[in-house]
Amino acid sequence: MSLTLPRLYAIADRGTLDKRGVGVGEFVRELRDAGVTLLQYRDKDGGPQQVLRAAAEISAVFAGVDAMLVMNDRADLAVLAGWSAVHVGQGDLLPEDVKVVLRAIPHPSQEREGWATRVGAGCVGVSTHVVEQVIVADAGAADYVAVGPVFGTSTKLNAEPVVGLEGVRRARALTAKPLVAIGGITLENARSVVEAGADSVAVIGGLFVEGRTVGEVARDFLARLR
Fold first, then answer.
1. Residues 117-170: pLDDT tens digits?
2. Rounded Cα gap, residues 35 and 71, in angstroms
3. What's the CATH code, domain 8-122+182-224?
4. What single DSSP character describes residue 67?
5. Do 152 and 184 meet the contact criterion of CB atoms below 8 Å apart?
6. pTM for this predicted structure
7. At CA 173, angle to CA 167 and CA 178, rounded to 5?
8. Which among 183, 174, 191 is positioned nearest to 225, based on CA atoms?
9. Residue-range domain boundaries for the chain
10. What is the DSSP letter of 79?
11. What Cα–Cα distance (Å) separates residue 224 from each residue in 16, 34, 47, 67?
12. Which bin fits 164, alpha (ψ -120 to 50), beta or left (φ > 0)?
C-alpha cells in the first residue's frame, strides 16, 4: 500500500497517562481538537478488556474524523476494536503475520465480506533500532518503519541505545518507506529530526509541557513540523 503519514504521530501511552492522572478520553480529545490525525494507543500492562475499553473510548472521540488509529502490539485487539493499523516491535508478530490476522478475522458485528473490504491488508509499522533491522523492515511487509530512540527517553523501560540524528539519516538512506522517528522528541528538537530524514515524529512525553495543555503543545508541534 502507498502510505503518507502526517508529521505528528501522537502516542497515548497508558502508563504515562496513569502516572500523570490523565484519562485516555481527556487526552485524545485534546489531540483531536488540536488537529492530530495519527494516534497510537499503547498499553504494555493492561489486559485485553482494559485495552478494548480504551480503544472504544478513542474510537468514540475520533468518530467522524479522518484519522488513523494504531494499536500497539496486538493485531487481534485491533480487529476487535475495529482498527486496521497495528504497530509491532522486534519481539512481536512479524508484519506479514499481522496482515494475515487483519485479513482473516472479521469483527463480530461485521459481515465478513464487508469487513475484509474495509480493512483490506491493513497498515503495519515496525520498530527498528539498528541498521540490520531497518534493512529487514524495508524488505518485508511493513508499511512504515520506525527508528529510535533518537534521543534519551523516560517513557520506555529498558530502552534500546540512542541512535541520534545520525541513526535517522542512516535509516533514511536504507528505506524509501515512510520513516517515523521516536524517542525523546520535543518541541525543541522535532524539526531537526525531520531535517534528518524522518517523515513523521512519534511523541509521548513531549506532549506534556509544564503550564500548558496537551492541545496547545500538539498545535505547536503541528505548526513547527509543517
1. 333 458 999 999 999 999 999 999 999 999 999 998 776 666 789 999 999 999
2. 20
3. 3.20.20.70
4. -
5. yes
6. 0.92
7. 90
8. 191
9. 8-122+182-224
10. H
11. 24, 14, 37, 20
12. left
